[in-house]
Design a protein that fits this description.
The chain has 305 residues and is mainly alpha-helical. It has seven helices and six strands.
């Protein structure tokens, strides 16, 4: 069985606990405690070495100095427990506001020790506020060190936001082009329907003209031929009217379907534009904020907020 050091959450006494158990009783004050909280309590007050950190080989010792507390905060960052790490560094910034590392530590809890390059606008604003405080209290040599690291981070954040906006624009343009092509195809199909209906009437009038000419010519030779022409003319007229009526109904029904599809595409185009503008606006604001931060950082216009 492997025991690890812990501190009682009631009397703060040093204990050895089994991390597999959920709870235990303090041997000093007989108070029940939750094992993980007791271990966290010990780490918070006693971590002194996090190089080559391994969760199974954490090196700890007694002590509650500033250095130990800073390393405790860094340990929780490694453990990805950013909320608890932030509590540690915030408390340190209250007790040791003159040490830039306490403010710098808060920054690291917001950007995963400068590994998260996709902060939102409120988070980036908070990061900048704490950087300004860290910069003000840092020594001249430390100022240059944190300034260069911070600038490099903001440059990557800004470039990343710019790339994402470009990708978003390309995606929107592609989608818009596809929708507009679909709309144009539907408009062509609708135009072809109008052409088909007109063709029927053109054929009818051509037939009518031909038969009329034949009838006139036949009238001079035979009454029977003239009668046959009139009969043929009436038959063609009835057939064309019937075909035209059926074709018109089908054409009108198809046009209504096409108009509905076109309206749906117009709505999709409009919604796509709104969605694009909303997302692009976030990236634009993030880019502008990043550029302002870079300008202020380069010109050392850092005033505590």
């Amino acid at each position: 069985m492997n025991f690890v050091p812990a501190r009682c959450t009631q009397c703060n006494g040093i204990l050895k606990v089994d991390p597999e158990k959920e709870c235990a009783i303090c041997s000093h004050c007989n108070t029940p405690f939750i094992t993980q909280k007791a271990i966290n309590n010990y780490i918070t007050n006693n971590v002194t070495n996090i190089e080559n950190f391994n969760a199974d080989k954490l090196i700890i010792e007694d002590g509650t100095s500033l250095e130990n507390q800073l390393k405790a905060g860094d340990t929780y960052i490694i453990l990805k427990d950013f909320d608890y790490a932030r509590k540690i560094f915030r408390k340190l910034s209250q007790n040791f506001p003159y040490d830039y590392r306490t403010w710098w530590g808060i920054i690291k809890t917001y950007n995963n020790d400068f590994q998260d390059f996709e902060p939102n606008i409120p988070t980036l604003s908070r990061i900048d506020q704490f950087y300004r405080k860290a910069y003000i209290v840092a020594s001249d040599s430390d100022k240059e060190k944190i300034k260069e690291k911070y600038k490099a981070y903001i440059q990557v954040v800004t470039a990343n936001a710019s790339d994402k906006k470009q990708s978003l624009t390309e995606e929107y343009d592609s989608k818009k082009e596809d929708l507009e092509n679909q709309k144009n195809e539907l408009l062509k199909e609708k135009e072809n329907l109008n052409f088909s209906f007109g063709t029927i009437f053109s054929v009818f009038f051509c037939c009518l003209s031909i038969i009329s000419a034949i009838g006139i010519m036949a009238a001079y030779k035979s009454l029977l031929a003239f009668s046959l022409c009139i009969f043929a003319l009436l038959f063609i007229l009835m057939a064309c009217c019937s075909i035209s009526e059926i074709s018109e109904k089908k054409s009108q029904s198809k046009k209504e379907v096409i108009d509905t599809q076109i309206s749906e595409i117009d709505v999709l185009i409009e919604n796509s534009l709104k969605e694009y503008e909303e997302k692009a606006d976030v990236f634009i604001k993030l880019i502008n904020l990043g550029e302002n931060i870079l300008y202020n950082t380069e010109n050392s216009q850092n005033v505590a907020v």
